[in-house]
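TICKET #2291
ISSUE: user wants both folds in one file
ATTACHMENT 1:
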Amino acid sequence: MSCYIIGSGAALPERVITNAELAAKLGVAPDWIVANCGIRERRWVDANQATSDLAAQAVNDALHDAGIGAEQVDYLIGGTLSPDYQTPGIAPLVQRKVAGCRAIPALDLRAACATLLYSLQIGRGLIESKTAKTIICFAAEAQSKGLELSPQSAEISMLFGDGAGALVLCDVLPARREGKHRALKIEDVLIATDGSFAEDLIVRAPGTANGARWFDAAQMAANLHCGAMNGRTVILQAVKKMTAAANDILARHNLSRSQISLVIPHQANANLLRALSHRLMIAPERVVMNVERYGNTSSASAFLALWQAQREARLTEDAWVLILAFGAGFTWGAALCRVC
């Protein structure tokens, strides 16, 4: 039994936030943002948009791309770092908002920016074990609503954008349809976690590790509900772990880096992506990048990069595609796919 990615979708807010607009709030120059992360603009949701709204749009877009209806979906697997509510999770909310979706299992993942890889591994297992035939994997973020827009948070708040992406997984490769994007066969997925770095990329509140209450005024005053990052550790570990994952998964299939036509990485920042390209000795033109336009959309970013590669017709028949991601936890991994 094989597992194929037969459709992809995306949702991006209409509101564009330029560096000039953001820099004034962060107390930095627009060029400083470009120099430090390569981002020139990002999308932010409006006040009345929730994360699940973006996710549902992306799911509907992916279903349309795959040419199937929501009634055919057997599982929903989703993730976010910026949920609508503390509970329930985002997956049930998306299931409710996608017209025609049946009463199916709807699972939430907390794999941060590696959500695509973790969802592929789970979805692939469900399909190859014949537990399901069609699965939607998605991730969405509305992180702009939680950013601290002040000079002391400039290094982290400059990074993030909002957006959502979704993929349709299926046990059968559909007939090639005129005008439709090529499918991907998932050949292998490698994922890992190292919790010893848990505090290096974290949002501490609300949480039960914060004392007598999981959230209170003192925690808000201390900005524990905002993201905190040890930037140097994150970049060093991200490049190291993704390079190792790429080497390991290629070795398992006796492939060389020269045989990889396209690398689709999590869009953390442009400097990290350039370092990854250098470490892998893969030319930058073979690495999908959209961080300049969309910023770091966290769990959604690898989904959006794959969606972009399909829309730009960068997936050619029989080509090998390598997907890489790294996120809080630390979580990371690689997926190896073949274009059909």
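ATTACHMENT 2:
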Amino acid sequence: MPSKPTDPSRRQFLRKVAATAAAPYVITSSALGAGDRPAASQRITMGMIGTGMRGSHVLAGFLADPRTQCLAACDVDSQRRARAKQTIDAKHGNTDCTEYGDFRELIRRTDVDVVAIATPDHWHVPIAVRACKQGKDVYCEKPLSLTIRGARAAVTAARRYERVFQVGTQNRSNPAAVFGCNLFREGGLGGYRYIEVGTWGISRPCNFPAEPVPPHVDWEMFLGPAPWRPFHPVLQRGKGWIPYRDYSGGGTTDVGAHLFDLAQLALGTEHTGPVEVTPLDPAKHNGRCVAFRYADGRMLYRRTPGNDVKFVGTRGSIHMVTCAWVDVRYDPKELALEAAAGDRTLSYSSNNHAANFLDSVGSRKKPAADVELGCRAATICHIGNIAQWLGRPLRWNPEKEEFVGDEQANHWLDRARREPWDV
């Protein structure tokens, strides 16, 4: 059994003692925590890995919390990481942020407590597992993984190395969304009818022609564990990689990671999953393309196109629209929803996902979107994709996390990764 990583507060204390012995003793107002900013010894030091479109939003969320001191920015695109450094330095009023093109150099730093990962999906687990091994707590954007086995590997690493691991399914910190899910789960809308998740399409093979690699892009590092292919700017621009199978599960895992996570919460199946998954013809089923059946007979559907989740009971429905922070709409019909609301409380009171993660880093308690929840949500997305890719019904064992008696389907549980990026 590997040794337990050093406790963050102890690690910071020892680090600062060593620094004091080797340098002049100067105390600044910021070090003492002037204003509402905590003293340096109380701050959580962070490295940001992936500084593109999504990464810039994640970074902004952490920089808004005075407990965070961001020490490093990493990206395969030198222009992006330079912009991130400017943002970080401007926030902290110094020039201390270090740029990295290789995340391994960042996670080896002993003065970094946590990492936030906002890379393309195929990089999430290889980075997160290595970060856990280096004793870092992890905030990883959704979906947790490119594959089912990858998602489980992330859980295993977090538990083995006793790391706090938050997945970026932000609606776990959305009180209205959590309340709506709990209300449905507790029978507040009457008997169960169905849940329907709307996403856009599944991922597909990529056949872009080759183009020259720009000098500011490390294309080999962008590909990492994915199969080699020539550069094309669409894949490296914004979220252009999402529709392609080597890097993502498409819309199913992108917005679906948020929405299936809420479906799991409303079903009370956060630590298990369905037992059957069946691809459907959308033209014959009002846009529904996949049906999931749970062991107790309850049905969950995925519809395309869409960007929403609907909970339907015998006395009303709840409709949640958009992905990262849902707009909750209620249709109570015969139910006096407001009266019912007074008798129910949230299972927890998080309303800021980044802050909830930082709270957990301090308390060592599980965060609102613990890695196990992210694993189960990603798994539902993946088994739906696999059923559609194969074009036939599949039986699923949620305890063993494998398909029942289907070698071809089980082939998709994981992917080969290029060296040295296996997990």
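RESOLUTION: both attachments delivered.
EXTRA DETAIL ON ATTACHMENT 2: The chain has 14 helices and 15 strands.
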